[in-house]
């Protein structure tokens, strides 16, 4: 999702969402972790709620959002943090990343994309329970204290902190894009804290009557989705930051969650109810936020498109689009125009260099597909490595400047030239052709197979692999008549 905003050449502040938890799982029993929410914690949650909505696509409304809210509030009560469900604010976010988190004070969030990956209500409750477990155990407060003690972060409040990656502001700006696109990072919890949240979530599931194995199955689906994303994007690993990725061994975490559930009561899955309530939910990018189609990014509302270089993949983030590959990283942003394009590019380089440093590129002007443009390339040192740093800006009119920030190994800046030259306006007719993908729940008919239903998936590649991951089907697992499954189809 890319939005009009004022000049912000440094990646946005990363939010450390307040997931609080219990002490030492490794020692055996978990403490009750049911100290009620304090007024101070509730106030902190309220203060950041608006900002979270802004950064993650806003709150969704309607039947699915109401359903998610109800499930989340019911499972949250099992924590003992509050006696009534309405003490918790549970929000379905209009975001295409697989993520869930919670802030101190009873604010719990999940993205619609993560919900589409689930296959029953118990899995939804498990994700919500995991996040509430972090809150109940005050993990965020502990993490913040450790960060302050180590002087890694400035005093930015109990749950709002910045992250720097690398040894320079350039590393901070584009290093984040290399790791996770422009999706906001949530500061990682430790392995033990994630295990604590898993165990608390499993406990809450059982207490509420749900099948406690649902925590294990949703973690397995996430691991499979990450592996599939890596395969489809040509990456060597599946470790892009997303919900549940902080554990160093996803397979081990799946097994651990299953072990935690062993012997606990609870059988409810509510699969049919869940599928009925997510039927029609947007899958992947919302056209209002721009969409990724292979190597092309197209934004029908802002009326522009571009194509990533061969061998690169795109990640549509909260306020920029990242372009990632083995031979470089870049991100596209939009800012309010100020002065000439040449002045804009010069300020961009200075912002990338940081205070007390200087990058002196030769800035040139040109025209790209009818758009006035300016660009510069400079050599910089980061961690002992020589890099080419590029800024390429376009005047789209209406007081808006669109610009790339990019880095590549020294002498390899040309890898981005085709992308810079591909930036273009799109016509109204082309914009109108962009429609969302949505979840379509269908009943398997006699004669239907995985292969035949997969061909209805709204993708040109990986149709069967996508179908199997979406429906948590093993590689050789078939279908039965009467079974309900999810498809991803073109909406209207």
From TrEMBL:
Annotated protein name in UniProt: M48 family metalloprotease
Cross-referenced InterPro entries: LysM (IPR018392), Mito/Outer_Membr_Metalloprot (IPR051156), Peptidase_M48 (IPR001915)
Cofactor(s), names only, from the UniProt record: Zn(2+)
Xref: CDD domains: LysM
One Pfam family per UniProt: Peptidase_M48
Enzyme class: hydrolase
PANTHER family recorded: M48 FAMILY METALLOPEPTIDASE, METALLOENDOPEPTIDASE OMA1
Taxonomy, superkingdom: Bacteria
Span of domain LysM: 440-487
Keyword NAD part of the UniProt annotation: no
Enzyme Commission designation: 3.4.24.-
GO molecular function ontology, one term from the record: metallopeptidase activity
Gene3D superfamilies: Metalloproteases ('zincins'), catalytic domain (3.30.2010.10)
Organism: Alteriqipengyuania abyssalis
Protein keywords: Hydrolase, Metal-binding, Metalloprotease, Protease, Signal, Zinc
Region forming the signal peptide: 1-23
């Amino acid at each position: 999702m890319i939005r009009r905003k004022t000049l912000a050449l440094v990646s946005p502040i990363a939010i450390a969402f307040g997931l609080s938890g219990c002490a030492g799982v490794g020692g055996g029993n978990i403490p009750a972790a049911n100290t009620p929410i304090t007024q101070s914690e509730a106030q902190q949650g309220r203060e950041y709620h608006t900002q979270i909505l802004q950064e993650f696509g806003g709150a969704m409304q309607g039947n699915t959002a109401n359903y998610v809210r109800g499930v989340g509030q019911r499972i949250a009560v099992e924590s003992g943090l509050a006696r009534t469900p309405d003490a918790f604010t549970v929000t379905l976010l209009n975001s295409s990343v697989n993520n869930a988190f919670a802030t101190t004070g009873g604010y719990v969030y999940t993205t619609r994309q993560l919900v589409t990956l689930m296959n029953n209500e118990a899995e939804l409750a498990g994700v919500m329970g995991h996040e509430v477990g972090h809150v109940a155990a005050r993990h965020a407060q502990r993490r913040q204290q450790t960060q302050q003690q180590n002087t890694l972060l400035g005093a930015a409040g109990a749950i709002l902190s910045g992250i720097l990656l690398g040894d320079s502001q350039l590393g901070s700006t584009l290093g984040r894009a290399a790791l996770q696109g422009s999706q906001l990072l949530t500061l990682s919890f430790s392995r033990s804290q994630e295990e604590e949240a898993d165990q608390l979530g499993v406990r809450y599931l059982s207490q509420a009557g749900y099948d406690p194995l649902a925590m294990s199955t949703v973690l397995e689906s996430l691991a499979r989705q990450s592996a599939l994303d890596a395969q489809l994007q040509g990456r060597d690993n599946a470790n892009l930051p997303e919900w549940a990725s902080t554990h160093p061994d996803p397979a081990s975490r799946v097994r651990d969650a299953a072990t935690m559930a062993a012997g606990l009561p609870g059988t409810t899955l509510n699969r049919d109810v869940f599928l009925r309530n997510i039927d029609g939910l947007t899958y992947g990018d919302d056209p209002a936020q721009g969409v990724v189609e292979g190597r092309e990014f197209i934004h029908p509302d802002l009326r522009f498109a571009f194509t990533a270089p061969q061998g690169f993949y795109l990640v549509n983030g909260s306020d920029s689009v990242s372009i990632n590959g083995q031979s470089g990283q870049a991100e596209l942003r939009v800012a309010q125009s100020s002065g000439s394009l040449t002045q804009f590019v010069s300020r961009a380089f200075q912002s990338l260099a940081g205070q007390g440093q200087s990058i002196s590129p030769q800035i040139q002007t040109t025209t790209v597909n009818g758009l006035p443009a300016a660009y510069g390339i400079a050599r910089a040192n980061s961690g002992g490595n020589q890099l080419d740093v590029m800024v390429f800006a376009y005047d789209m009119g209406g007081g808006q400047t669109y610009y790339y920030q990019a880095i590549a190994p020294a002498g390899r800046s040309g890898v981005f030239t085709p992308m810079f030259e591909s930036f273009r306006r799109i016509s109204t007719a082309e914009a109108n052709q962009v429609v969302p993908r949505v979840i379509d729940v269908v009943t398997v008919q006699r004669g239907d197979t995985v292969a035949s239903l997969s061909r209805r998936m709204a993708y040109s590649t990986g149709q069967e692999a996508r179908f199997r991951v979406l429906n948590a089907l093993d590689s050789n697992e078939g279908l039965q008549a009467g079974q309900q499954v999810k498809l991803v189809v073109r909406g209207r």
